[in-house]
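User: quick one, fold this
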Amino acid sequence: VAITVRPEHKLQAFSGFGGNYQRDNAFLPDGGSSSNFGLDVANTLYIAKHMKYPWARVNLHLFDWEWVNDNDDPETTDYTERFKSHWGDVEVPFDDQREGLHYKSQVDRYIHIMKQWLPEGTRVIAHADTFPSWLMEGPIIKKGMAAEFVECVTSYLVYAREQGLVVDLFALKDPHKGYPVFTEDEYPKMLVALGKSFAKNGLKTKLMLGDTNQFYTLKNYAILANDMELRGYLGGMGYQYSGVLDGQMPNHRLWRDLAEHMGLPFFATTFGRSYGTSPTYLFEEVRIQMQLVRDLKVNAALLTSFVANSRSPKDNLTFARTV
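Assistant:
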């Protein structure tokens, strides 16, 4: 087989592969063995110590950050309640018995551990899909609470920055049916409000559109393409992939085309296959990587999980070796 290298033939700028850091309901300050963020998870420590990667995606659990409304003024943030840690209606101790450390809040421990795991220079995509109950009415933000939502997100990002964790891109995760948190009329206004709030508070965080696995929501984002005010606050477009992409490539290319039309980098915010579903897993994983980079021309691709959540330690180490 003859292989010809053509350095003059350039494709898209590709910053590299990264991964998602998952946190589930087992994340507790006592460092229980089932916790995804236990510091003794061998595969996670291996990746942090031996790999360099440009992007990591994390979940900001806003219900941990502002479990009750701090006050009735969205222009003023009161951090007092932030330093109480609650899991649902149950207050959780702040001391981590295994680490011998004391945290002011659940969020403090979360930030502390992420900082240990992220190699220097790794950029962060944050998404939010869990919201304080006082903000919500069913799946929708309560009427008149949009400004409080903006304050909740902005204050979290400002506090994270003060603790040394800088978020580069922020997305409202996975809008399965259009926009589950806002009505379609409210959504563009909310994005602009977030962008303005980030800038006002000195954050360099930009907004990511998409970050969904539902193709039919493309039309909702296409409507935003001509919103010039919003365009100034955007930093990327994302889509979540699972399994090989054969048969759906024309649909997937539409997301890439929209990102290109809006002048945005295009991210595969999740991708990969489960280790146990196929004896040809490794070959399929490499094939997916090739499809993303060569056919969809993504600018970055993030493995579904870097920690022991949806993948086993063997999955993660296999990826570490192949990439």
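User: anything notable?
Assistant: Residues 24-40, 87-93, 308-323 have pLDDT under 50 and may be disordered.
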